[in-house]
């Protein structure tokens, strides 16, 4: 039962991810990407990580992709304004992507023989356990990440703010 | 079979709430017109049935039988998808709301709540943040500049107000220590003094203002501002697709009222609850009165939404953005910081000083 749900979700996420790249219309690409995020949220649910699944939907599907869609709708991209890519670029892209896939396949083909280093707590994804472990065991990385976000936020404000001397 | 019986109460509650939600939304349109008429010293709808009570059904038949027009240059699939998303998202929220306390029927005890998610508040947020696609996709697929402007206004407004809404809720969650609706409602048991709007007046105020903005209700109904944008994001829509957009607004209003009542006004708690339990010795009676009390609160807030709509004029778009980003977010941050300090002193022993 769980396995078939997993295979279905995997098929859906890979299918939509391919459609993101293949579809000609940028708005369609963004919509397929949203569906990909939803199927990934489904994977989180399978891993018993409800908090992560919902935060994933709120942050990625609900906020970031809305901004993506926003910009693409305002730019009004269509076939006429599409930048022409040289065949050299396409060739380089194919080689880079292909070698990445080769490495990933080489690594993941041995996945069956890899055992988890220690006992995995299946209840760790529930919000209570996650909160406790974030504020005790992983307190330092958590705070560092928070400071990183704060710096990024202030940086955005400064970049967006007009310089009174130049304007 | 055993699992089916265990899930049966949830399934029944989901179906009941589905029907009740649609009925309340249907009669909210009637209520809106009656409230507007009252505030403007008119009579309002009074032709269809006694006191015009059949008016919503007449409107529904009109919507269904109107000619349906899909613009030639519109993206047909996305054009139909827009109102569908709007409708689906607003119906999904009611699953996590607690409609009442314990009920014992046929020797089985269950809660009047479909699912008690331990992250229920976050679930509501996720659904709300996804519902913006209904407006965006519909507005873009219409291939009309008024619709696009309305869609972009709507999405930027909803994103902006989601931030302060989230911050005000974090302050509340900090105090309750739970994201489950049932826990939050149960903590408000024991009289009006325990209700959260007294403990967190600022959170309540911010949440209420943001709820107006999230529902696209006046004074924040800029996405469908007809003086500037013809009809806003649903300019090109006709027939029942337009009906779904309008209907989803009323369902959102009902759900917002239910969330506000549950988070800040005690949900199904009512004054004299313990007294009623002592005199009748029946949790079933208390629960049914509680459900009634909850719906009274919800109806009050639906009325409040209408009251405000016909009292306060619409904001200008820059005023809306200034209010959201320069007033509500700093206010919510200060509120959060103050709440954090208070909570720290309350739980001093946990910090070792």
Structural notes for this entry:
The complex is a heterodimer of chains A (167) and B (353). Chain A has helices at residues 2-22, 26-46, 50-75, 87-108, 127-135, 139-160. Chain A is an all-alpha fold. Chain A has one domain (2-78, 121-160): Four Helix Bundle (Hemerythrin (Met), subunit A) (Up-down Bundle), CATH 1.20.120. In chain A, helix 2 packs antiparallel against helix 3. The model of chain A has no long low-confidence stretch (mean pLDDT 84). Chain B is mostly helical. Chain B has one domain (2-347). Chain B has helices at residues 2-39, 55-65, 76-92, 120-141, 145-176, 181-187, 196-199, 201-214, 226-229, 239-264, 273-280, 283-309, 317-346, 348-351; strands spanning 100-105, 108-112. In chain B, helix 1 (2-39) packs parallel to helix 12 (283-309) and helix 3 (76-92) packs parallel to helix 10. The longest helix of chain B is centred in the first third of the chain and has 38 residues, at 2-39. Chain B starts with a helix and ends with a helix.
Summarize the entry for a quick read:
Chain A is mainly alpha-helical and 167 residues long.
Q: How would you describe this structure in keywords?
A:
heterodimer; A: 167 residues; mainly alpha; Four Helix Bundle (Hemerythrin (Met), subunit A); 0% strand; globular; B: 353 residues; two-stranded antiparallel sheet; 14 helices; 2 strands; 69% helix
Bulk shape of chain B: globular
For this structure, the quaternary state is heterodimer
Distance between the termini of chain B: 55 Å
Quick one: how many beta strands of chain B? 2
Radius of gyration computed on alpha carbons of chain A: 21 Å
Set down the secondary structure blueprint.
The complex is a heterodimer of chains A (167) and B (353).
Chain A: H1 2-22, H2 26-46, H3 50-75, H4 87-108, H5 127-135, H6 139-160
Chain B: H1 2-39, H2 55-65, H3 76-92, E1 100-105, E2 108-112, H4 120-141, H5 145-176, H6 181-187, H7 196-199, H8 201-214, H9 226-229, H10 239-264, H11 273-280, H12 283-309, H13 317-346, H14 348-351
Antiparallel strand pairs in B: 1-2
